[in-house]
Amino acid sequence: MASLLSSPFTLPASKADQLSSISQKHYFLHSFLPRRARVQSPAKSPVSVRCAVVGNGLFTQTTPEVRRIVPDGDRNLPTVKIVYVVLEAQYQSSLSEAVLALNKNRRYASFEVVGYLVEELRDENTYKTFCKDLEDANIFIGSLIFVEELALKVKAAVEKERDRLDAVLVFPSMPEVMRLNKLGSFSMSQLGQSKSPFFQLFKKKKSSAGFADSMLKLVRTLPKVLKYLPSDKAQDARLYILSLQFWLGGSPDNLQNFLKMISGSYVPVLKGTKVEYSDPVLFLDSGIWHPLAPCMYDDVKEYLNWYGARKDANEKLKGPDAPIIGLVLQRSHIVTGDDSHYVAVIMELEARGAKVIPIFAGGLDFSGPVEKFLIDPVTKKPMINSVISLTGFALVGGPARQDHPRAVEALMKLDVPYLVALPLVFQTTEEWLNSTLGLHPIQVALQVALPELDGGMEPIVFAGRDPRTGKSHALHKRVEQLCTRAIRWAELKRKSKVEKRLAITVFSFPPDKGNVGTAAYLNVFASIFSVLKDLQRDGYHVEGLPEKAEDLIEDVLHDKEAQFSSPNLNVVYKMGIREYQKLTPYAMALEENWGKPPGNLNSDGENLLVYGKQYGNIFIGVQPTFGYEGDPMRLLFSKSASPHHGFAAYYSFVEKIFKADAVLHFGTHGSLEFMPGKQVGMSDVCYPDSLIGNIPNVYYYAANNPSEATIAKRRSYANTISYLTPPAENAGLYKGLKQLSELISSYQSLKDTGRGPQIVSSIISTARQCNLDKDVELPEEGEEISAKERDLVVGKVYSKIMEIESRLLPCGLHVIGEPPSAMEAVATLVNIAALDRPEDGISSLPSILAETVGRKIEDVYRGSDKGILKDVELLRQITEASRGAISAFVERTINKKGQVVDVADKLTSILGFGINEPWIQYMSDTKFYRADREKLRVLFEFLGECLKLVVADNELGSLKQALAGKYVEPGPGGDPIRNPKVLPTGKNIHALDPQAIPTTAAMQSAKIVVDRLIERQKADNGGKYPETVALVLWGTDNIKTYGESLAQVLWMIGVRPVADTFGRVNRVEPVSLEELGRPRIDVVVNCSGVFRDLFINQMNLLDRAVKMVAELDEPEDQNYVRKHALEQAKALGIEVREAATRVFSNASGSYSSNINLAVENSSWNDEKQLQDMYLSRKSFAFDSDAPGAGMTEKRKVFEMALSSADATFQNLDSSEISLTDVSHYFDSDPTNLVQNLRKDGKKPSAYIADTTTANAQVRTLSETVRLDARTKLLNPKWYEGMMSSGYEGVREIEKRLTNTVGWSATSGQVDNWVYEEANSTFIQDEEMLNRLMNKNPNSFRKLVQTFLEANGRGYWETSEQNIEKLRQLYSEVEDKIEGIDR
């Protein structure tokens, strides 16, 4: 099996030559730095690429022919032909057995049967065969058809033949397919209209899975009632219900009687014959099943009595000390006899000494059985230590509509770790093994994403499917992994705290001593210190913990044996080569990329080194890095390399030498979950699976990053616990900007006196000193301007200043377990209040205030953007009044210490009637005193709820629950301002149902942004429409905004999404050119690796949409997609559909373009090399015509598509992350690359949409970089906030500067003054320079190096003495770090 997976790939010779010629130019950093930096480059190894489309290019390669049975022609017997379509194959063997038995008897008729799996109908040829089979069929049967595009295909085919068919039976499926039912006079064609008796079942009920349950109740009682009703109609309805009973009974006997009943009653040639059939054999709807038990049990006590009396089990297994694991099974697998994979899991668990309680349910709601059989009715405590669902479905609702709150409620009562393992449904074992994607996208949506909303973890594929019989079989290696992990989670519930061993893992990225403990927005060491203090109080064995967090840093960072400033971290363990190979079964596989161990990473040449420090039963270790970030040649490879030996040794140490009971990955994020392997549903040769081994993984993850948290969940089996990002504050004004603001207010009071012109000229010169002349057109100094023009100039400068002042930024770093104080939460609440929430009937505060003075807030925003002075002033007043009213409200809910006291009581007294509501009191002194009180009340009640959530703290509590083997409540990740349900933190983060986006609201917002983008581009480009826009789709952004950027792409090409009955989006339709009112804009979509993993269905949708648009019969000047596709098809000699490929990403299992790694580690020679990385790593396309092929390299099409781009575009959607905060944004920026690819060499316009506030903006990239520099890097409020976090803060400042250099490298859009001002802020100011050097000398060295590099690469022109000073500083700090005193 392993050989199927590691597809070898080698680069063609020419490519390898190109690479080596690059790596020979060794003029790296050495040319900018005063002394040789030590650059180690790991062993080179050949890389190779092979990716082929298998068969029809779809995921499901099986054929219906294995389900076809044709009887030996007996001329005297009539033939009855049956065609069936099902979701899963478990009915195949049972139904085939029934038909073979009937044909053997040769009593009434010969039966011909053929079956299709829903997924097979994607293939055009299979679909044609299906339609042909229906033409001479007597009976059609369908079940569980819930995938919309396929449901519509089934409907179209069956509808044509419905009147001719003798019987059509459809069991629970989408309403469109259910309406096809007909048995004599019984039909469901009215389904969904109120007069239909079945309509009641399909109403969108609160308890969605209740549908299946009410159906089951009906099934039990109706036949008895209907028997006594004379009419044919009632008899037909009775037979429909009996059919459903037979079908749900699923055994060969039941299915045989089912076919006899339907044929005898409805097939005309058998009308006169009396066909005998017996009633359905009914099995329990829910109960407990064990393969060795004599029967199914309805009572857990009886089951346990049988268990205790078992002769085949040893005493230990029956004893009180055995861990107990609950299993949730699907009844249809048990009744159809397709249960060998269940048996394997039960036997494996028992062989490992665990007792099992396997429960099943017939409907789609497992919450009842969970409460009934797994919770002790007397003590209300769980009877098990952990539970595994082997169904793969959400706990309530299966593949149809889910009821997550109901599921969470049941699981909270159960309170044990909840694992959801996966049987392969749409693929055979071989198809899955060969797939780089892993699981089929539809299965990921139904059986990975939906269970995550219930708090499910560990999506391990434990069963495969046989292509011939359709039966499931256990995958033994995977079953072992699943069972061991379930028992390890169970052990956490049973072990005492004093015995538990915890390995806390921190990250160091990019690799440098100044970067140990990297995590987004988190003060890592202060947080670990607070966690350890808490665990110690709680009874965990923590010894030798230093007095304060700073000393903790010293312990981990410095090797006490060596001199104080040695470059080495503290070594906790030296692992010899033989020991490493013995403990690490996959060590050989790493040699292809890294040579023989130990290699030169994390090693001393003889041993592999594990860095960290042990405190009693707690180990704090430093996760090694990828290892190839310093090697430009490796960064060019399109597939990422395996982990290196040091990386593998670290996890072998944690699991097998330190013997951790759990590992706690600390902060966002490490590299384990981004190692190569299948995207979802890994096999035993995928690296993340091998590395994490059997250790339960708990992972602190930033609440605003649900997409990468989801990758950690799926690829490293993590229980992700969210932490808060630091409270946001307004950027405020400083230095010249503050002076400008004072000048403007004096202008407003004196503009009509003689001093107006004089003040305006001061405003203009101060604005120039602040470099605002790049953002606002300023008249020449001394130029005469009219009063009206003066107002406009002042208005525009004022508007820019207000934009800087009100920009939100997270100040400082979060410490786990320290929620913000109420006053720190004010800015967050002001921003929550600034958004309209029509679905909750809440108006935004700015819109309520604008209405008071007879204006619409939208118009005020527009006016202010244009620089109309009175609108800028009004917007400032609205903003101030909002802040004031909310501060007044918060002040009333806190005590003297500034903590929020019981909000509920305080609120009730505040929300009483009368004049004394604090916000009304505040408003009474402003021009907004007549604001609508009712609207304000509704808004402030909502804000009161939000305030409670912001200050709640459960981050430590949830960690302790996870370590105690309890259930951690799930919650969405995202932006707390858009979606306050993200709070309180400390929840098990999940993303969203990938088929639910884009929502209608996202489509609305997207239209506004796209229209503004096109307006802006036309204005900057002589009124011409952009023909192509190159843009990026991010995973997290689309989760936070419910698919806004995805919707922008759809709107650019002029299509709209169409949702099905369950609100899932799997189809699009074109918008007419008349309605669009402009040409269709072509797009080149670069999806991040994370977006590709989470939203593969949406990539499929986009690709289908673009190809559909390329094939529309429209004039080329109105459809640029078609225009370019035709040109490219001609140039490349390919079909138009292939030329219209526009959806690209990385190869499966690889992430990012690596430009970020090259920039952070200064391991690149020139911009061309960065552009080559982008092209080689990002040119993998997704093809909706062959989705099973995964990502295939289409570099030629990618380059041609990019060469037509007139504009590049990205989105910013939340205040915490902007362009220079993370390296991802410039890593995906193709601005300079497009310029090189364009025939005319013209630089494309680069735009950034900013939807972080209610007033969405489209700015140029350079405007956004300037705004970012002014509000973050150069803003005392921001950098002092960072400095207050000490060691970590210095690193944050250095990171912003490095990311700024990244933007210079990919787009050239950074102004010289940004570097100049940064240099005077951090280097010219002696006091500042010493603070930086003392707090974190390693990061300070990197800061100095980055300044030198910016100058050496030509991005910053400055005086010779500035450069001389930097060189001197570099040598000083080098000496300090190496401990040389001169």
Q: Point out poorly predicted stretches.
A: 1-55, 193-211, 560-566
Radius of gyration: 33 Å
Strand content: 5-15%
Q: DSSP helix count?
A: 58
Global shape: globular
Query: What's the total count of β strands?
Result: 35
How would you state the average pLDDT, rounded? 84
Q: Specify the oligomeric state.
A: single chain
Specify the biggest β-sheet.
8 strands, mixed
Cross-sheet strand order for the largest sheet:
32-31-30-29-26-33-34-35
Distance, first to last CA = 61 Å
Family: Belongs to the Mg-chelatase subunit H family.
Pathway: Porphyrin-containing compound metabolism
Domain CobN/magnesium chelatase: 245-1362
Pfam family, one: CobN-Mg_chel
Short description:
The chain is of the alpha/beta class. It has 58 helices and 35 strands.
Question: Which helices and strands occur, and which strands form pairs?
Answer:
Elements: H1 2-5, H2 13-24, E1 79-86, H3 90-105, E2 110-117, H4 124-135, E3 139-143, H5 148-161, E4 167-170, H6 175-178, E5 182-183, E6 186-187, H7 199-202, H8 210-226, H9 232-249, H10 252-266, E7 286-288, H11 300-308, H12 315-318, E8 324-330, H13 331-335, H14 340-351, E9 355-361, H15 367-374, E10 386-389, H16 404-414, E11 418-420, E12 422-423, H17 429-434, H18 441-453, E13 461-465, E14 472-474, H19 476-494, E15 502-506, H20 524-537, H21 549-557, E16 571-575, H22 577-583, H23 591-594, E17 608-615, E18 618-622, H24 632-635, H25 645-657, E19 662-666, H26 687-692, E20 697-702, H27 706-715, E21 718-723, E22 728-730, H28 735-750, H29 756-769, H30 787-806, E23 808-810, H31 826-833, H32 845-852, H33 857-866, H34 869-891, H35 903-910, H36 918-923, H37 933-951, H38 955-963, E24 970-972, E25 988-990, H39 1000-1020, E26 1028-1033, H40 1035-1040, H41 1044-1053, E27 1055-1059, E28 1065-1070, H42 1073-1076, E29 1082-1087, H43 1089-1094, H44 1096-1110, H45 1120-1132, H46 1136-1139, E30 1143-1145, H47 1155-1160, H48 1167-1178, E31 1180-1182, E32 1191-1193, ...
Parallel strand pairs: 1-2, 1-3, 3-4, 8-9, 8-10, 10-11, 12-13, 15-18, 15-19, 19-20, 20-21, 24-25, 26-29, 26-33, 29-30, 33-34
Antiparallel strand pairs: 4-5, 5-6, 7-9, 13-14, 16-17, 17-18, 22-23, 27-28, 30-31, 31-32, 34-35
Keywords: ATP-binding, Chlorophyll biosynthesis, Ligase, Nucleotide-binding, Photosynthesis
Domain Magnesium chelatase subunit H N-terminal: 81-241
EC number: 6.6.1.1
